[in-house]
Design a protein that fits this description.
6-stranded mixed beta sheet; copper; Cu-oxidase_C; 43% strand; single chain; mainly beta; 7-stranded mixed beta sheet; 300 residues; Immunoglobulin-like; oxidoreductase activity; metal-binding
């Protein structure tokens, strides 16, 4: 099972061999920092939306309700689905979901295990940047070597109503068309409000990274080297993997990295762009930043 810190997994009901999920596209209030909320769009009460976990060969039905004021859609990013289910209504026979209506996306999971995303693909420059996205993981039921498996979705927002250098509680509008971002998040939270990734010494750890927004983010780990094991949901053969400590996650990409826990401590895991390690340019560290925390070995 994949753990998505600060988010929940999307539940389902299985009926006659089909897994039925429900997604609700709606206005949400997301708490980036204690008491600081943004008025965004998301699914089932949050942005990113809940993480979907399925298996190869599953027959799935995603009923998507639209509680927004304009039509929307859902695109299954990286999945090989029938064209009517791909969710790009401006160029495909896949329909728009009008306000107050729903649509059933129904297909078989034909891709192998890997990390993918889902997001709107209608009026994308507004709807995606308002937060309509989430993670979709195709699980590997035969993976016995991974001890802990985490998913992190990267986001950025232009929060209005806060002068540069100021962070204070409140509920704030966001500007989806601005390129002047001032808050950067992992799974919808900014440091130090992000939940640490807990590990124990001697474990094999996988971290999955996804990005469906505007900027690219070079994500860097401290105290360890990782192997890049998958790109866009496609496993990289072991002989072709790179050993790195920084991986650039461009818009539209997912990457899986794996490392062995052999260096106890509290280790940063963060975007390396300095601007992205702040909360509206305030001190000290903030933004797209979390920590990897060893829970079983005293710190030295």
């Amino acid at each position: 099972m994949v753990i998505t810190p600060d988010l929940h997994n999307l539940p389902y009901k299985e009926i006659k061999g089909v897994k039925y999920f429900e997604l609700v596209a709606e206005e949400v209030e997301r708490e980036l920092l204690p008491g600081l909320f943004i008025k965004a769009w998301g699914y089932n009460g949050s942005t990113p939306g809940p993480t979907i976990q399925v298996c190869p060969g599953d027959y799935v039905n995603f009923r998507v309700y639209n509680k927004l004021s304009e039509p929307t859609s859902v695109h299954w990013h990286g999945l090989d689905v029938p064209v009517v289910m791909d969710g790009v209504p401006d160029v495909q026979p896949s329909p728009k979901i009008e306000p107050g209506r729903y649509f059933d996306y129904r297909f078989k999971i034909v891709n192998p295990p890997g990390t993918h995303m889902y997001h709107t693909h209608h009026i994308s420059h507004t709807q995606q940047m308002m937060g309509l996205m989430g993670g979709l993981i195709i699980l590997d039921p035969y993976d016995l070597k991974t001890d802990r498996d985490y998913f992190i979705m990267l986001q950025e927002f232009k929060v209005e109503g806060l002068p540069m250098g100021v962070v204070k509680p409140g509920k704030y509008e966001i500007d989806p068309h601005s390129h002047d971002f001032n808050f950067f998040t992992m799974n919808g939270r900014a440091f130090p409000f992000t939940t640490p990734l807990e590990v124990k010494c001697g474990e094999n750890i996988k971290i999955r990274l996804g990005n469906a927004m505007e900027n690219g983010h070079p994500i860097h780990i401290h105290g360890h080297q990782f192997m890049v094991s998958a790109a866009d949901g496609n496993t990289i053969e072991p002989r072709n993997r790179m050993r790195k400590n920084t991986i650039h996650v461009a818009s539209g990409e997912t990457w899986d990295v794996e490392f062995f826990t052999n260096n106890p401590g509290i280790w940063p895991f963060h975007c390396h762009i300095p601007h992205h390690m702040t909360n509206n340019m305030t001190k000290p560290t903030g933004g797209m930043f979390t920590t990897i925390v060893y829970k079983d070995v005293p710190m030295k």
